[in-house]
Design goal:
With 297 residues, the chain is α/β, with parallel strands linked by helices. It has 10 helices and 10 strands. α6 crosses α10.
Amino acid sequence: MQGLMQILDGKYVSEKLKKEIAIEAAAMLAKNGRKPHLVAILVGHDGGSETYVASKMRSCEKVGFTSTLIRYESSVTEIELLDRIELINKDKEIDGVIVQLPLPKHIDKEKITEKIDYRKDVDGFHPINLGRMQRNLPCFIPATPFGIMLMLKEYKIQTSGKHCVVVGRSNIVGSPMSILMARNDYPGNCSVSICHSKTPDLKKFTLDADILIVAIGKKNLITADMVKEGVVVIDVGMNREENSESKSGYKLYGDVDFSQVSRKSSWISPVPGGVGLMTIIGLLKNTLASAKREIYP
């Protein structure tokens, strides 16, 4: 296995950036008499969603933000949610709002996403933010891709002229990640291939990757024979399996077989301890930018 210096350590980077965010939030409070304010809406009692939202709320508290959790039962109607978002949009004391996915089947997540004011869309999912991102204009970048970009920058990973292969095409990670890595910026300036469940001979692409970003949701999909020596691997997978020996009752696995692939990689992000922690940093930085009116004055 590669030495620890080759680990893309999400815990280290996230703690460092949280301290920087906390300093900026304290300065804003001293200057304007208010803290950045994030609202999270949670529908139902999905175990994963409960965990993610609780972690986001704790992180807000740690950096000196105000956070509000609004809970609904799974029976909430689409109209009720849309009306509540409208009230949040109009509230000048709220800087950002996120609606935790997944939502119940009777609620159209696209309607919910588009209802959020793009100037408070700190998850970066609104079509206006995604469109501005594609044009390399100021915007809220989706939190997970934003976190990955911050990690690449922190470790000074060379990206210009590299072949970046993105496995997964979701609107939350894969698609925006492919756009960001191709942009004329740093990190960026890659030649990008985007692969997905319908890609024939996935191994042909992954073997050619200088930078491999995997976000497809299949435990240990990427094995050692699918990567070349020296590859940079970003594992976005978060696959939960029940485990009676774990305190939480489950164990997390990535989309990459870490024990084997790490022997060939120059840098690799672990699961847990990698991208998941950086997603929250992306969210916090977007919320701070919204509070400071840095993106949309």
